[in-house]
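Cross-check.
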Amino acid sequence: MPVPATSLVRSDATQALTALLSSRILVLDGAMGTMIQRHTFSEQEYRGERFADWHRDLKGNNDLLSLTQPAVIGAIHRAYLDAGADLVETNTFNAQKISLADYGMEELAYELNFESARLARLACDAVTQATPDQPRFVAGAMGPTNRTGSISPDVNDPGARNITYEELVDAYLEQANGLVDGGADLLLIETIFDTLNAKAAIFALETLFEERGRRWPVMISGTITDASGRTLSGQVTEAFWNSVRHANPLLIGLNCALGAAEMRPYLAEVSRIADCFVSCYPNAGLPNAFGEYDEAPDQTAAIVREFAESGLLNLLGGGAAAPRPSTSRRWRRAWSA
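Predicted model, tokenized:
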């Protein structure tokens, strides 16, 4: 693992975040992927000069844009911050060597996480300097990977696995090291559809904390996949919480797969049972027959405003097809009024 030339490691933000979460609902940014899609980058633009001769197609590797199109990624962070976000996620949803293997880029995992965290850090610091009464924070995003530790990839062989627990831990640990070295304030284990993957990420973070001699705040966000109220690996909300509560997360919550209206009963369950702060970043409704989202920002805002009025959450953001930064101020005013 390369050592960065300049350390951007942040001091412990737990106390500051706890104070803010205790006083008001914080705002997480919206979806990075849909903002990137608006730029319609070509294969050449994904590659940039550095990867012009790469042996595999790179279009769709959004995490790589932190290296090849850093100005665009930084501008997306800045747009969300200017619209009022308190926290922005790093552009690292798939930036661990398991997912990066699809592009033959496993060796870039640490660098991608470091640079992505650095870009988010620069944006947050610039906005915090301009508005010191509203500090901004970087959430180091750690997605679920494209493998599952609990479910067989072969319907004819229930015992088959294409990833081991140890491989998941190793990949998550490398990712977490890059994120904290790049300046992440907290670490976000998100879009968890398989609790065994989440447990591997938690073990990796505990290893990181032991090796570094300190802790970072942890946020865990699971995904209820359909109206059954279960994760893909079969757990109901309460079971998911009891499986990960040993991590002592600062925040626990749900994201993606469902729109806000469909997510409400499961969010209410998290709020009822969790002994920590609660987060939620839903999709903009459910996709239509063409895979597009029809729910308008004002519609989503009306639903999540009720979440706030009912005391169900402490942090709110947007998942797939979330409101763009240009409409986020209107969206935020609607639910916080």
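The two ends are 47 Å apart (CA to CA). Residues 99 and 145 are 6 Å apart (CA to CA). Passed to J.P. for a second look.
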